[in-house]
Amino acid sequence: MPRKPAHQQFDTLKALQERAFDLFGRFGYDGVSIGDIAKSANLSKGALYWHYAGKEALFLDCLKRLHALFNEFVFAPMTAEPDARRAVLNLFRGVERLAEIPSIRNGIAGFWLLPATPETADLAASQREFELASKQVVETTLQRGVDQGHFDLHGDLEDFSRAVIALVEAVVILPLRYQSHEEVHQIVDVLARALFRAYAKAGLPPPI
Known about the structure:
It is built from nine helices and no strands. By secondary structure, the chain is mainly α. It has a domain of 145 residues: Orthogonal Bundle (Tetracycline Repressor, domain 2). α7 crosses α8.
């Protein structure tokens, strides 16, 4: 069988990745089979295995794509902003922007539904590494805010960092496809204002 031209291979791979991301995001690792993904992408199983060694490799690729989106929209803008108050606002703005991406709005909770089995150990490790790095960004930003005199966390730095990550996950991971953009904006704005009311020394931030 002759090999497809490069552009056709790229289109096939892109379709495969898009469908896998959507299915894994909605149904989790155990809820999706190789056959489900191949059928959804209008491919044969053989075509799928041409690109990936198996379901674990494909899931890991999708998981890395998800992590990259969080880093692009949320954590990188936080790290790049020297003023901690604006960096915290970048977190909430990033969450809102992230929630507008169609592939995210379709649902991503499935990426947190990983069974504790030997075959998924590398996937779980990747997820833990991402979560630890995310918490570190938030913790570093809040500490910078304390050092700059903007926040008083009353000794709650580490616990509050975990709480912020939990809020981010709750806002983005829960099925936002049933909420309008304005509703998402209002949720994110309320969360940001609650943080500043509780811990900021200079009152509320400007509207997001």
